[in-house]
Amino acid sequence: MAFSAFRDYFAADKMEHLLTGNKFGPNEDIPDLSENVYVVTGGTAGIGFGITAHLLQHGAARIILLSQKQEHADEAKRELEKYENTGKVEWRQIDLKDLSQTDRIAKQLAEEQKIDGLICNAGEGFGKYNETTDGIDSHFQINHLSQFHLVRMLLPALQRTTGSRLVLMSSDLHRACPSSTAFDTQVLFVRAIVHRMENNEPGFQSNKQMGPWVNATHPGGVNTDQQDQAVEAYGKPAKVGVAVVRPLLKDPLDDGCRSALFAATSNAVPREKIQGQYVSRARSS
């Protein structure tokens, strides 16, 4: 089961690459960011580190990294010195498994006068079922609920920043799911609540004159610690699948962060009015 999911995921990603190609190169196509302020969740490792490194290379005025572990932040800063002086990089500890702590950090960040980009990159992959201190499935709380709250709290700062971006990391792993899979009522309930908030809550929608430009992104199959989470959760079958697939996965620094960087920085987003789209392979679909 686990191996077939990995196989189908990689096959779908490879086919998409052949069909659409990749027209955005971070090293060449990211514009000057010298006046821009970014907030990146999970910005100290994996794809998030790649995003941070490129933002730093292109002169971002400030980069605020949100992650849980101090040691990861310290290691990331040491590695980032290879690309640029890290004096512009700030770290704030956030535990997305704790809603009250997430709320405190969100309120602090909401005081920022401007935020040019909020990149919600943090997330768990295949993992064991765990509940947070709030009694919620950790995967749902980390990947969705806590970062959704962060978005709501920082939306005013994004709205008052001309041309701001909101980037939501996603995945097309759903392609490996059987077509017969049925959504349960809980999922439909959550969707209904989100839809209601998007359409009725004052100030929730994007300001078309100012921002933000809101897009979801799919990074493709990327070599990160999420494969290790799969092995921990599913044991030997996943270990076999990871061993086969991992050599074929993309490097998070060179390629895995492209779609997120396109959505967060490319001048093509406002020029082509790329809004509410699913950005995959650095182009929208």
Automatic annotation (TrEMBL):
<dbReference type="InterPro" id="IPR036291">
    <property type="entry name" value="NAD(P)-bd_dom_sf"/>
</dbReference>
<comment type="similarity">
    <text>Belongs to the short-chain dehydrogenases/reductases (SDR) family.</text>
</comment>
<dbReference type="GO" id="GO:0016491">
    <property type="term" value="F:oxidoreductase activity"/>
</dbReference>
<dbReference type="InterPro" id="IPR002347">
    <property type="entry name" value="SDR_fam"/>
</dbReference>
<keyword id="KW-0560">Oxidoreductase</keyword>
<dbReference type="Pfam" id="PF00106">
    <property type="entry name" value="adh_short"/>
</dbReference>
<protein>
    <recommendedName>
        <fullName>NAD(P)-binding protein</fullName>
    </recommendedName>
</protein>
